[in-house]
Structure formats: structure tokens, C-alpha cells
Amino acid sequence: MEFTDLNSDFQPFQRAYTKDIMKIQEIERRVREIESQLKEYNIQFESDITPSILKNRERQTTIDAITAAVNKAYSELKSQVTAEKDLKKQLSERQLCIEAQGDSIRVLQQIDHFLAWRNEAQAALEHRQHQVAHHHVDNAVPLLKVSQGLHVYNVGFKYIAGVVTTAQRVSFERQVFLTSRGNSLVQFEEQRHDRIVFVVFFLGNQLQRSLKRLCQFMNIFVCYESDNDMSREALLKQAVNEKMEDKRAHSATKKLLKELMRETASELQGWKITLLQEKGIRMTLNKFRLKSRNNLLLAEGWCPTQSKEQIHSILETIVRNKGVTSPILTDQPFKGKPPTHFEENELLTAFQAIVDTYGVPRYKEFNPAIPTIVTFPFLFGVMYGDMFHGSCLLLFALSLLVIGKMVDANNSKSETFTSLYHARYVLLFMGAFAVYCGVIYNDCMSIMVNGWNGSQWQHGYTDDGYAVMVQRNVYSVGIDPAWSGVDNQLSFANSLKMKLSVIIGVTQMTFGLLLKLSNHIQEHDYISIFFEFIPQLIFMVCFFGYMVFLIFYKWCIDWTTSNLPDTPSLITVLIKMFLSPGTVDSEVQIFANKDFQALIQVIFLLLLVFSIPAMLCIKPCILRSRMSKQHGHLNGDDEKYGDRTEVQMPTLDVQDYQKMDDASLHHHHSHHEGGAHEMKDMEYEHSKSESHPPQPEASHGHDESFGDIVIHQLIHTIEYVLGTISNTASYLRLWALSLAHAELSEVFFDKTLRTTLESNSIVMNVVSVAAFLMFTCGVLLIMDVLECFLHALRLHWVEFQSKFFYADGQAFRPFSFAKLLEME
């Protein structure tokens, strides 16, 4: 059921259920935050919602319950995530410690190697200090006042050990030299890793503090110092134990966090489905009108006639044993344009989509999708006619049917496959008609097949000894294969396909006019039938119908025994029909009797000429007469209705509205006496609507002044006359596309396979086959299919549907959770 918005004059924040919708949106935001957290931690979860899942899932909980569940999970997960992030930060720091401890192990293991240099380093540093003190070294500054002797200050020999990266090595060595003013000695291990163990030997506590600050500034980890209280063996054992403990803590924390997130992830899809359902219900409730102190909801909408009983049964089931008043389902008068609804199946859906892309049919207008099932693939087949290529397209469509039964194509994540699957029946019919037209053209990759009853042309000789082709009989189906390879094959094919294009075009446009007649009969618009449809049909038949008749008539003439003076050109016949009416010379004579031909051509020409002013003038004049009569009637009611000059044709009378309302009110009072207050409100609403008589629709859907009617009719007359001529020429694209397809097939076959058939080179044969398949698949099976599809689409939308299709209707959009999912 499609609901009508009864609160269109209210702002969104004034509607009753807007607060609930905002609350649901806030919960959805929290669910999205949970999803982002799960994605951040690479937790697999299923949150995608498909129409089938949404359709088959019942409403399991209320908005309060889902709010409590989501808020609880959100709070728990948020606290856990916060704790996890803090722990992650600690783990990161511990990981650095682990790395440092690993480096410490290496340092402690390497110290013995470095300490082998201790005595030499100590002697070198003391000797250098003594030289600096006695100014034996230029530009050097002593670190200590040695005037009283170095031994007085009891300067101890010290060292620190740590780890630097390869990138830090040079700068660290330079900074140590500058900080100690050359009074230090740095040793590095052999470079086998990105992190290198070092030892710095120096003298004195002051220099030790400076070097430690330097290491802290350069983010260099110091693992061991010479005055450390613990032994190297104890430090080594402690580093190994801390590393193992950190590994166990990290593993346990990670396992606990994943279990918590997996538990939350299992609920996500259910939450999203419930929230989507609840939001959709409240968005629909916002269209209802609250009555009688907010204890009655009034809803209006559209539903298919056959669904009324089902809707009534659903309403009764919902309120049963709930202690509330039973709902009332009544028919209401039309308000605005009724939506258009068609019962669809798998076959009709894709063709209906082709029509709806151009426009939706009006209510009770003829649905163009019905003839489109046949005419659209047929026009495609006329342009694409080829037995081999059509068979490829047909097999592709059949494979889609088979694969679609094996897998759930509607829920496939591949949009391309889903789109092709939805169009499977269109592709199936396109392939079938392409094969059919290929049989008629006797075209299989530009090769004519000598099948059926065999070629009916054979070589013969005249009495003078000249070799000629003699036709024995008629080839059973399609074009005789004897035309293959002859000099005039292209001329013959062009002439045949061009005439077929014109015949198909005129036939389809005439069929469109007949569909227009059915619409006028449905609308009871007899003025348009007699003074619009009939003149248009006369114009079509007297010119283009006559041309199609001449095509068939000329085909039926046996020119070997004909007594006509010449073979007339049909184009010349039609031109002379307009330029020289009443006269037929031997150049354009096609009937045995010239006078008969001249007579019927004059009659057709007169009917054609007089049909144009009939289309243009008669209908506006009749409508003008009606307007004059109504104008006198409206003048007596100026105060009530206003002074208007309009064409009005009522659809339903006000009394009919009142009868339907009275019947519904009587039904309510007889069955639900306790609902008196509610019905009083409804009576008041109906009385308000009845105080303003409904504005009846005009004969063409809306009120128009006489000037507007004349301009409208003038535009349509010019459009029809010129459009009929241009549309007929537009159908020649059937011939052009068919010719292009045949020529491309011939070129690809001749330049690839045919040139290497007599070659003994395997390489050349493989290359030619690969080139043939590439051109065939890329150009003929993909690009040409799309091209013919688009041209067939244009012929339907413009040339065919413009003859009868209004395309200004409104589609029936019933409430559906699947449509809410599309909106999301």
C-alpha cells in the first residue's frame, strides 16, 4: 500500500514521530561506530542487508528494547576499547622494552668482548688527559684542573653500553666526541643488524652524566653502566624473564579482546535490520494524521483493488486481543493523480523497466511494455540478424538462466552480473530474433548457407549461346544462397533491407496509432477519436500506407511478362504524386490502368491535405463551443466558484463522495458504538472537505484556456505531420545497422580466416584465428550488440511510443522495507 502524506503542511520537527526517528538515527550512528571499531581490529562480521533477508525477517523487538541492547553493547564495547587502547599503549611501551631487553641481552653478551679493551682504553684516556693538562695537544681544553695532580681528584675509569641504529651511528659518535671534548673512546660491534651495540669508555662522573643526557636526547637506549649494582649475569636473567612475561600478557589480552568483539559482531546484522524496520515504520507513521486527542490515526493511500481484502485481514489480525478499536477501511475519492500499478513477473520486469525509464504510464493507460516484449527484440534482430552471432547471444542468455537458478543472482555482490541477470529474458529474446532474422537474411558470419531445399537458381543458355541464371523455383526460407558472391549482391541486399525497414516502420507507427485509439476509448474522449485519431490515421495511410502497398505490389509483379512500359521507381512515383496530381506518365506507371492510378492518387492526396486542417481546427472549435456554454453557466455562480473560462469535465460528483462517506460512517456506528468521539472528528474532517467542492479535471487532464488549447493543438499537429515523415526516415537505421553488421562480418572473416585457409603455416593459422575471435568478440558481440540495443531503444521511445504514450503517470510505490534499503 502506498500512503499519502496527510501532514505535508507540517514541518518535519512538528510531526509526532520525528523524535523517535532522531533517536533511531543516533543508535544507527553508534552501530556505525561499532562497525568502524571492528574493522579497525580486523574482526570479520556480517552486516550487509539484502532485500530477501529484510523481507523474510519478522519484527522481533520494539524500539525501546533495541535501544537498550545497543546502548549496553555500545557502552561495554566503548569502555573495553578504551581499556584496550590504554593497554595497547602500554603494550607498545612494553614492546619497546622487549626490544630494549633483547638489545640488553646482546649488550650484556658483548660486554666481555668490549672489556678486553678496558686496560688499553684507560691507559689511552689517562695519557691523553695528561698531555692536555701540559698543553702537549693544540686546541685542547683539560677537563680537570691538574695543577694539584690528577690523583687528588680520584677520577675513576667508567663506561656505558647500549644500542644505536645504523642511521644514528655516525652522528652519535660525533656528538660523543664533542661532548667529551675528545676524552672518550667509542667501540662498536661489527654491523650485522639494524641496531648496533656500542661501548663508550670515559673518565669521571661529570662526563658520565653528560653522556647519559646525550643518549636520552638522541633516544638511545643505555643497557648497562660500569657502576651498576647488579651483576651482568643477574641483568641478563632479568631481561630474559621480563621478555617472556610480556609475551604471555600480550597474548592473553589479545585473545580476550577478540572474544569480546566477536560476540558483539554477531549481533550487528540483527540490530541494523531492526533499526531499519523501526525507522521505516515511523517515517510512514509521520504521514498519518492524529485525531481525537492523539488516540486515533487517520491514514490515506492507494492499494491494488485485489489487495483490499488482504489489507483488511492484516488490520484485523494486528488489533485482535489488543483492547483497541478495530480499524476501518473505506474507499475515498481521488485526490490528485492515481498511481499506476502493473502486476509483473520475471519476464515482464525487464521490459517494464525499459518503458519506465522513458516514462510511467498514466492510470488505466495502455502499457507499452506488452508489445515491447516482441517489438523491441524484433527490431534488434532486424539490425543484428546473423545466425552465428545471434546464437552466441542466445547461448549467453541461456547460460544466465542456468547460472541464476544455481546461485542467488539477486544477492550477488557483482553489480554487472546482477544487471545482466535481470535482463536475461531481454537478451534471450534478442538472441532468438537475431537468429531468426539471420535465417531470413541467410547470413552466418557473411557466409550464405545452402540449406533447406537448395539454391533455386541454375546456369542456363539462351538461343544465342549466352550463359544466364535461370530460377527454377523459390527458396524455402530467406534469401537464396545464389546471391552470394555475385556482383550485384550488395545492391540487392540494400534494396531489400531498405524496403523492409520502411514496411516495419510504417507498420509499427500505425500500430501505435491504434493503441492511441484504445486510450481515447478508455478515457471516453470521443472528440479526440473523430477529430484527431481519424485524421492522423488518414494521413498515415494515404501517404505511407500507400507507399508500403506499392512496395508489395511491385514485388508481386512478374516483370518478365509485364506489359508496363518501364520499371518505375517508387520514390519517383510518390514525388510525381505531389508535383503532378492527376497525371501519370509511363515513367511512373505501376498499375495497368493509368486513369485508375491517377484517380486513387488524387483521392489519397486530397484526403491527406484535408486531414491536416481537420487535426488542427475542428477539435479546438468544439472545445470552444463547450467553453462558451459553460461560461454562461458559471456566470450565475461567480461568487461561489469565481469567473473562469475553462473546459471542465467532472469525473465524480460531490454527492457520490457524500454517499461513500455516509456509508462508511454508518458502518462504523453500527459496529463500534464506543468510537463516537473518533467518528465525530472524522465527520468534521469530511464536512470540511465537502464544503469545498472538488475541482473536476479537464478533458485532457487539466484546465486550459482556449488560447492554450489552440497552441497545444497546433504544436501537436505540426509535430505529427513532420514527425511522421522524419520517423519513417528514422526507421532506415534498421537497414543501415544491418548493412554495417554484415559488412563488418565479411571484412573480419575475409581478412583473417579466409586469407589463411590455404596456408600450411600453423603460426599463420593460429594468428588468424586469434585475430578473428578478438574482432568478433570485441566488435560484433559486444560493441555492435550495444549499438543495436541503443538504436532499438530509440525507435521505441521516440518513433513508436510518441504516437500514443503520455508517459506522465506516477509509479505505484507501496511501503516496502526493501525500498527503504535502497534509500539507505
From TrEMBL:
GO terms for biological process: vacuolar acidification. Residues 682-703 are annotated as: Disordered. The chain crosses the membrane at residues 378-403, 423-441, 500-517, 529-553, 598-618, 762-783. Keywords: Hydrogen ion transport, Ion transport, Membrane, Transmembrane, Transmembrane helix, Transport. GO terms for molecular function: ATPase binding; proton-transporting ATPase activity, rotational mechanism. Residues 682-691 have a biased composition (Basic and acidic residues). Essential component of the vacuolar proton pump (V-ATPase), a multimeric enzyme that catalyzes the translocation of protons across the membranes. Required for assembly and activity of the V-ATPase. Belongs to the V-ATPase 116 kDa subunit family. This is V-type proton ATPase subunit a.
